[in-house]
Amino acid sequence: SSTPTMARQAQKMGCAWGRLCLLLSLLLQLPGSQAKCYFQAKAPCEYEGKQFSLGESWLSTNCLLCTCLHPIGVGCCETTQHPIDFPDWCEAHYDSQTCQISVVQKANPSLPCVKSVEHEWGSAGTPEPL
C-alpha cells in the first residue's frame, strides 16, 4: 500500500520542480526588471512565526517579496524600483515604511526632484518627468 503514496509524492515533487521554474521565471520578470532576486536553498518557509506552503508569498520587513518554494527553499525579490537616471542635484530617498523610493532635491529633501529653470534635466533619449 506504500507504492501509490510514493508515486503520489514523486508526482508532487515533479510538480514542485515545474512550479519552481515557473515561479523563478515570474519573479525575475517583475516590473522594473532591475529588481534583484535572491534564492535561499533549504530556507524554511516561515516568517515572523507564520508557516507558508508551496507558492505562497509574503512581504518581509526589508521590502522583499518572498515566495515559498518548498522543499527547495525560498525565493525573494526586491519590490522597490531603483531610479537610475536623475540629475546630480537630486538623490534617491528610501522610505522603509512604504517600501517606496522617491527622488528628491539634495538641498531640500522635502521637495521632489522636478525640472526648473536653473536646473537642466535628462539626457539624450531620457524622457522628461511629467
UniProtKB/TrEMBL annotation:
It comes from the Eukaryota. Residues 1-35 form the signal peptide. GO terms for biological process: chemotaxis; inflammatory response. It is found in: Secreted. InterPro entries: PSP94 (IPR008735). Keywords: Chemotaxis, Cytokine, Disulfide bond, Inflammatory response, Secreted, Signal. The keyword Disulfide bond applies. GO terms for cellular component: cytoplasm; extracellular space. GO terms for molecular function: cytokine activity. The keyword Translocase does not apply. Belongs to the beta-microseminoprotein family. Acts as a ligand for C-C chemokine receptor CCR2. Signals through binding and activation of CCR2 and induces a strong chemotactic response and mobilization of intracellular calcium ions. Exhibits a chemotactic activity for monocytes and lymphocytes but not neutrophils. This is Prostate-associated microseminoprotein. It comes from Daphoenositta chrysoptera (varied sittella). The gene is Msmp.
